Amino acid sequence: MESNSTRVAKIATKMAICDRHEEEQLKKYYSEKGIKVTAVNIGGNINSSITKILESALVAAKRNELIREEHLHEGAVIGATRDAIMQIANRANGLNVGGKIGIAKRGEHISVCIFLNIGLLHLDEVVIGIGHRSLPQ
Questions:
Q1: What is the Cα–Cα distance from 31 to 80, expressed in whole angstroms?
Q2: For residue range 25-75, what is the model confidence (pLDDT) as tens digits?
Q3: Distance between CA atoms of 60 and 100, rounded to whole angstroms?
Q4: Which one, of 119, 76, 117, lies nearest residue 95 by Cα?
Q5: What is the DSSP letter of 108?
Q6: Is 107 left (phi over 0), alpha (psi -120 to 50) or beta?
Q7: Which of 23, 55, 91, 113 is least enclosed by beta carbons within 10 angstroms?
């Protein structure tokens, strides 16, 4: 049987890899199931974009009411996003990236997934990172 943390991580991944049209459909679908989701586009040089990625994840989570504006909730999103960044940092170091952050929350579980295309000459590399935290209700 699948754990809640695994289910939320899969949903965050779906949000990170979907296009804008699918994103709106998924928001409605998961809302009906009591799962809060959001996604935000990101891009630029990975080294100079880390702060912006953290800010984007935090703002999206607050704006879409996945978290409350309090220290523990904000710290959970930042921590999960940093975990995801650490998983992709070596592959994207110094390169331009474009992609999306997907965030999902159900009950006490919140997951942040970062899905990126890495531009390298005419070759495109793909990388994904994911982080999870538990939050007080």
A1: 22
A2: 999 999 999 999 999 999 999 999 999 999 999 999 999 999 999 999 999
A3: 12
A4: 119
A5: T
A6: left
A7: 55
Q: According to the model, what pLDDT value does residue 73 have? A: 96
Minimum mean pLDDT among 3-7, 47-51, 95-99, 118-122: which range?
Answer: 118-122
CATH class of the structural domain 4-134:
alpha beta
Average pLDDT on 1-24 reads: 93
Rounded-to-integer distance, Cα 117 and Cα 126, Å: 5
As a whole number of angstroms, the distance between CA 89 and CA 108 comes to: 27
Asked if residues 80 and 110 have their Cβ atoms less than 8 Å apart, the reply is yes
How wide is the angle at C-alpha 78 spanned by C-alphas 43 and 72, nearest 5°?
A: 155
Q: Which of 61, 64, 63, 72 is CA-nearest to residue 113? A: 61
pLDDT given for residue 1 in this prediction: 67
Token code pair at residue 29: 């679908």
Angle at 35 between CA 128 and CA 52, to 5 degrees: 40
Domain ranges of the chain: 4-134
**Residue matched to tokens 């586009």:** 41
